[in-house]
From TrEMBL:
PANTHER family, per database record: HTH-TYPE TRANSCRIPTIONAL REPRESSOR SCO4008, TRANSCRIPTIONAL REPRESSOR
Signal peptide, first to last residue: none
GO molecular function terms noted in the UniProt entry: DNA binding
Ranges annotated as DNA-binding: 60-79
Skewed-composition ranges (Pro residues): 1-10
Residue stretches making up the HTH tetR-type domain: 37-97
InterPro entries from the UniProt entry: Homeodomain-like_sf, HTH-type_TetR-like_transc_reg, HTH_TetR, NicS_C, Tet_transcr_reg_TetR-rel_C_sf
Low complexity composition-biased segments: 18-28
Entry protein name: TetR family transcriptional regulator
DNA-binding listed as a keyword: yes
Disordered: region residues: 1-37
A Pfam entry, by short name: TetR_C_29
Keyword tags: DNA-binding
Amino acid sequence: MNEPVRPAPAPRRRRAAKTASAADTPAAETGRTNDPEATMADILDVATREFAAKGLAGARIDEIAAATRTSKRMIYYYFGSKEGLYVAVLEEAYRRIRHIETDMHLEDLEPETALRRLVAFTCDYQRSNPDFIRLVMNENMHHGEFLAQSRLIQQLNVPAINLLRSVYERGVREGVFRCGIDPIDLHMSISALSVFNVSNRHTFSLIFKHDFDDPAAIEARRDSIVEMIVRFVRA
């Protein structure tokens, strides 16, 4: 039977739930310890794996509840619906990578060094977080329908482009990068090369009889991607 479809809650509703008193929450009715932050983090962690593995259609709230220290009712209390939980999972996934990017202090590095570090980080992060790749691929199958519902995700991605734009424009001013490259296009190229390593490694390994999970192969591929991007932007 299909999960009940209910409207996704607005961000204001989810924030309000975090500060609700113990007497107002389903946890109080069932005798659970009321810790909204820990409960929501637990739900998001399990739901991330569930949605990444099965997609929005295949994931089940019952299974997510069973794998957490909460209940189906509380999941709906915090997130409103299955779709609301899915949007929250997307928001958390993007928040994590963007938070790390903005904390890299690339402005303290020479432009080429900064670009190399950013590209290497992207490769390593995508490789270490395959669930993020699966979530993005799944959302593309929905034509970005649920991502479009989140203002937070759109706000999170602005600093990512601004970060790359700042590195690139510094390089242009210093004469080490060539003019005429769109930072969004450059970001797309970095993402495409990094994502492919994760999304297609199993088929490539089988077709070409090559172990792309070997640590040496992973390092060589990352270095190759870094070098491709740097040579592309060099003056």
